Amino acid sequence: MERLDHFMAAANARYYATRDPFADFTTAPELSQVFGELLGLWAAETWRLLGQPDPVLLVEAGPGRATLMADARRAIAAVTPDFACALRLHLIETSPRLRALQAEKLPDAAWHETFATLPPGPLILLANEFLDALPIRQFVRRGAHWAERYVDCGQFVEIICPAPPALLAEIAPANAAEGAVMEIAEAARDWVAALAARIAAEGGAALLIDYGPAQAAPGESLQALRDRRPAPPLERLGEADLTAHVAFAPLVKAARDAGAKTVGPLAQGVLLTRLGLYPRSHQLARNQTPARASALLASAQRLAEPHQMGLLFKALAILHPAAAAPPGFDT
């Protein structure tokens, strides 16, 4: 028997080491090259607002097939060659299999198992659908107490907590109903706190994009995808991608407590529209076949429309306390 977060960490470590995650799901960079291009230009303009430090670390956490960063680098080289010369590319990736794929597109990158081994200096970090794969804990209201969920032989087991974690006490409503489930993401909170402390001390900015609510609320969101279909999350360890919704309010608090400034969260559709998603998509579509042009515009709508990815996905920027609001957050 093990705690849910330990189970989830082990399952995802095995999954990303042995399987092709993109056989099971599609992320925004794989939908449209414009997503990565816009984030690259966001990084370039943010670098300018930071005073154009040279050198500067350009970091991606969870780079997948390196599609986002390859598109970002192409846009950066075309529009802001000074930033292209100043940046030093670093990728946070634990999977040897994915590192090999990333090296084919980004041979000049340096790889890291964890955030802690990045070299010192100002950084600009991008993370798309990274936090949702970090392990969570779940607690269930039982009478006057909270019980924590453990996993045993593919089933949940509940153990009453004599003293619930402080983070649960911060987000759980006092009048939570019997059977209400609260999720806490200690790993995501700690990661964001370390990132924010680094930015506050050494300068820089981060853009975190993921799916979930602005505020933590009762409800369970743990889910698994296998062969592009929902699957039972506690079965067949390591054969499915396990994720959970990201509640942004605890991450904002963690970043601010660590000394950084935050802006957002902002709906992904709003951010991408402000950054030029539709004009760039139409520009690309003009030189394509009708079928390809239609696909490009449909991808833009999927990324930005509220009933698709535009509202559920949100963007949070973390900045040095003296930094100006970055592009897309400054209106």
Query: Percentage of helical residues?
Result: 40-55%
Supply Rg.
20 Å
Strands of the widest sheet, in order across it, are: 4-3-2-5-10-15-14
Number of domains: 1
Structural class: alpha/beta
Residue fraction in strands: 15-25%
Low-confidence stretches: none
Largest sheet composition: 7 strands, mixed
Q: Which topology does CATH recognise?
A: Rossmann fold
Secondary-structure element string:
EHHHEHHEHEEEEEHEHEEEEHEHHHHE
**CATH homology superfamily name:** Vaccinia Virus protein VP39
Shape: globular
SS element count, helices:
13
Distance between the termini: 50 Å
CATH class: Alpha Beta
The total strand number stands at: 15
What's the rounded overall pLDDT mean? 92
Going by CATH, the architecture would be 3-Layer(aba) Sandwich
Describe the structure.
The chain is 41% helix and 24% strand. It has helices at residues 4-18, 28-31, 33-49, 67-79, 81-86, 96-105, 166-171, 186-202, 248-257, 268-275, 277-285, 290-304, 306-310; strands at residues 2-3, 56-61, 87-92, 110-112, 123-128, 137-142, 145-152, 155-160, 181-184, 204-211, 223-226, 229-231, 241-243, 261-267, 313-319. The protein starts with a strand and ends in a 12-residue tail after the last strand. Strands 4-3-2-5-10-15-14 form a 7-stranded mixed sheet, sandwiched between helices. Strands 1, 6, 7, 8 and 9 form a 5-stranded antiparallel sheet that branches. It contains 13 helices and 15 strands. Helix 3 packs across helix 4 (67-79), helix 8 (186-202) packs parallel to helix 9 and helix 11 (277-285) packs antiparallel against helix 12 (290-304). It has one domain (14-132, 187-319): Rossmann fold (3-Layer(aba) Sandwich). The protein has 331 residues and is an alpha/beta fold.
